[in-house]
Amino acid sequence: MQDQIDTRLMLQAYEKITTHGEEVPGDIDKMHRLEGVTAFSDFDGYTLYLQDAEVKLQTGFHNTYKLDYDTNRALDNFIRKLKHIVSSYD
Prior knowledge:
The protein is of the alpha+beta class. It contains two helices and six strands.
């Protein structure tokens, strides 16, 4: 798997998680978790974060993003989770 994720998938997953997920306590206000993926934003809402136990994704302006993961398998599983969330929650 390449380090390429569709920006639309990221934004749709973020919206589904914050809408349908449970609010979780943390250092950051309004963190939500759904299907093992946590979503939150920075204080001004311009940078969005999605993460699970093995992958961290940060996305910002102009469809730029940064991925942090150890194995391709972890990234593949993370992308599958995002696709599942987007297709399963309305």
